Amino acid sequence: MDSNTYYSLIQFLTTLLLPVHLNKEQQAAIKQKLRYFVVIDEQLYKKNKSNPNWPLKVVKQDKIDDGLHHMHSDPLAGHFSLDETYRKIKIRYYWPQMFEDVRNYIKTCDECQRRGKNRRAEPLHPIKIGQPFDRVGMDIVGPLSQTKDGNKYIVVTTEYLTKWPEARAIPDAKAISVVSFFYEDIICRHGCPKEILTDRGTHFVNDMLNSLCDKFGVKHRLSTAYHPQINGLVERFNRTLCETLAKFANENKNDWDLYVSTALFAYRIRKHNTTRHEPFYLMYGQEIILPIEFKVATSAMLNIGDDEQEDLLN
């Protein structure tokens, strides 16, 4: 939104007076917009029909490019698709012609044009699960280009209910690397899953992992040559992870391990086609607060009570 309209709306909503420099046509245009906006903490918000208690922060014209960068090109955003980028923005912010601006930004994104070939999604084979971390799939990605820290592989898991991923860059695909990850990043962080699903590689089929599973009562289920798709959820995440890392790694591809955590963050706040929700939302029951929301405050950052907010929006 241009600054003139932005500040004119704030002035009229707070004082019922329009700026004297506006002509009659401009004043009429401002008055027509009034019922759609509200001022909270001296900031302009657009009323949200789909979620009345969650007004959308109005973004001024000079802040749009910065916002698009944070929502698409930043490592925490992951260079995801037009639909996903627009979805993240529209539940938090508003400005005129927002979809067109997002589309044009992605059309001119060098990384997306170079690497962003859309794949047709392969169908997943549903597996019955009860609650988060009842069942996880685990896999190894690699070997990849060796990084400066000596990492060549990534061990990954995906939780089957919420689609929550975990991953760690590792120097080798030995059993000790896999077991350390499974114990420290899964069991210690999320509790003991009832079941893990893996392929039959020696990094998974070994006494060390079997011993850990026996100790904590975790059933280890193996895919077969006849049903390799049993771990399709993890394999799909692997492709997304590698595509995301490739967009941020340097030309020598020896620093991709620096972006594993940010790639995980980006995936966790991406709406999944199966659940129709973000993994983060399904795990925590709320929308995540993004870094840009501290710069361009959204409803999540409003320091007002529910009753006060309801009064303002009515």
TrEMBL record:
<dbReference type="GO" id="GO:0005634">
    <property type="term" value="C:nucleus"/>
</dbReference>
<dbReference type="InterPro" id="IPR012337">
    <property type="entry name" value="RNaseH-like_sf"/>
</dbReference>
<dbReference type="Pfam" id="PF00665">
    <property type="entry name" value="rve"/>
</dbReference>
<dbReference type="GO" id="GO:0015074">
    <property type="term" value="P:DNA integration"/>
</dbReference>
<dbReference type="Pfam" id="PF17921">
    <property type="entry name" value="Integrase_H2C2"/>
</dbReference>
<feature type="domain" description="Integrase catalytic">
    <location>
        <begin position="128"/>
        <end position="287"/>
    </location>
</feature>
<dbReference type="InterPro" id="IPR036397">
    <property type="entry name" value="RNaseH_sf"/>
</dbReference>
<dbReference type="InterPro" id="IPR041588">
    <property type="entry name" value="Integrase_H2C2"/>
</dbReference>
<dbReference type="GO" id="GO:0003676">
    <property type="term" value="F:nucleic acid binding"/>
</dbReference>
<dbReference type="InterPro" id="IPR001584">
    <property type="entry name" value="Integrase_cat-core"/>
</dbReference>
<dbReference type="InterPro" id="IPR050951">
    <property type="entry name" value="Retrovirus_Pol_polyprotein"/>
</dbReference>
<protein>
    <submittedName>
        <fullName>Putative integrase core domain protein</fullName>
    </submittedName>
</protein>
